[in-house]
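A quick aside before the break. I want you to see a complete sequence-to-structure record at least once, exactly as it would be stored in a machine-readable document. Don't worry about memorizing anything.
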Amino acid sequence: MNRDKLRELREHLEFVDDRYTHRLRPGGSSMVRPGLEDLERRQRDLADYTVELKETLVQLLALLDEE
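That is the input. The structure line, written in tokens, reads:
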């Protein structure tokens, strides 16, 4: 297994997680409902996060398949 590529994928996962986790967690008071724009932004962020995770998973599976 290519350890450099595996390390690169792990670092990319950490980067993606750091970039999106704070955006996706609810913020502010739990008594206030988010507005429509807020919900739409979160939905776009979640979609982007999902696509990046899928792409990383595909690369990981291809790396594992090389063996």
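Two observations worth writing down. The helical segments are 3-24, 36-65. The chain has one domain: 3-26+39-65. We'll return to this after the break.
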